[in-house]
Write a structure and sequence with these properties.
Elements lengths: L11 H30 L1
Amino acid sequence: MLWSDPENKPPKELRDAQAMMRRAGLVLALAMVVAMFAVGMR
């Protein structure tokens, strides 16, 4: 990577979409843990 290379930053829409997907994945993982806990309690 040279100092003269253009910056490789994704556009704002892509960064926002990535952040949203990361949050959705986190919520989904948390929901799975809660579901497994609820099933285990029965």
